[in-house]
Amino acid sequence: MPAPAAASAEKEAPTLPQELVSKLLALDDDYTKIQKRLEREIRELEESYDKELTPIIEARAQLLAEPGEQGSNHVNGFWKKVLRNSTEFEDDVEEWDLPVLEYLVDITADDLFPSSPAGDEAPCGFSLTFAFAENPYFSNDKLTKKYHYGEGKEFLKQTEIVEIESDGIDWKPGMDVTVEVVRKKKKGSGAKNRAAMKTVTRDRPSFFKFFTSLGPNYPIPEWLELPDDEDSEDDGGLPPWSAQPWQSVFRR
C-alpha cells in the first residue's frame, strides 16, 4: 500500500485573522518604542560616567608615559600584559607576538555615529584603536578596527554587527609575524632532489590576524575557519569571535 503524501500527513499551521495580526504588530511597535527609550537612557547614563572616567584614564596614560628606572617608559609591556591577562585575547596572543606587543602604548574605544547625526541618534557602531610606538616590525603608528551595526532578523529587533573594517598592517620586509618561513625538501627520487631544499611561507596563528576586515564586501581569508552551522551565511560570513563586544574591554 503506497504511503500517504507528505502534504496530507502534515497539518497546516492555522492562519491568524488579519485583524489579530494588525493588533499584535501594533503591540510590538509599542514594545519597541519603550525598548528604544531604555537603550537611549542607558546610553546617556554611560556617557555621563564616561565623562567622569576620562580624566582618570588620561592620568593613567601620563603615569605610564613617565620614564622608569631603566630609562624606558613604564608603558613598555603594560598593554601586552593586559591582552595576555584578558579572557577575550589570552588565547590569541602567541609567543612570536610578544616582542611586537612591547611597542603597544595605548588602546582606546569610541562610538561611531552616522555622518549626519540627528539629535540623540544611537551609535552605528564602535571602533578600537591600538596605538604603537615606532618599531622595527611595521610602519603603522596606529591600527583601527571598526565594527558596524545593522538590523537583525525581522521581528527580533536586535542590533547585530554586520561588517568589520580594519586597517591593514604595513609589515616591514621579513618582519610579518603572522607567517613563518620553513624549509622543505623538494619532491623526487633522484639524489639531486633529495638533497635540494625549498623555502615555503605559510600562515600561522597570531594576535595580529585580529586586524582583518570581515563581511559581505570582503573576501574570506583562507586561514579563517568559519562555524559549520546554518546561521553562518545569515551573519554575512562573520565568525562568532568577530562579533564579541570588545568595546566593553577597553574604556574610552
Describe the structure.
This protein has helices at 6-9, 18-65, 78-85, 98-101, 191-195; strands at 104-112, 125-132, 142-151, 159-166, 179-185, 197-203. By secondary structure, the chain is α+β, with helices and mostly antiparallel strands. Among the domains are: 18-65; 74-169 and 205-219, Arylsulfatase, C-terminal domain. The strands form two sheets. The chain has a four-stranded antiparallel beta sheet, with helices on one face. Strands 5-6 form a two-stranded antiparallel ribbon. It is flat, with a radius of gyration of 26 Å. The model is unreliable at 230-252 (pLDDT under 50).
Explain briefly what this protein structure is:
Belongs to the nucleosome assembly protein (NAP) family. The chain has 252 residues and is of the alpha+beta class.
In quaternary terms, these chains amount to single chain
C-alpha geometry? flat
Termini separation: 72 Å
Q: Under the CATH scheme, which class of the domain at 74-169 and 205-219?
A: Alpha Beta
Overall pLDDT, averaged? 77
- Low-confidence runs of at least 5 consecutive residues: 230-252
Q: What would CATH call the architecture of the domain at 74-169 and 205-219?
A: 2-Layer Sandwich
Over the alpha carbons, how many angstroms does the gyration radius reach?
26 Å
Question: What is the N-to-C order of secondary-structure elements (H for helix, E for strand)?
Answer: HHHHEEEEEHE
- Helical content class: 25-40%
- Category by helix and strand content: alpha+beta
Largest sheet: 4 strands, antiparallel
**Total E-strand runs:** 6
Q: Helix count, per DSSP?
A: 5
> Which band does the percent of strand residues land in?
15-25%
How do the strands of the widest beta sheet line up side by side?
A: 1-2-3-4
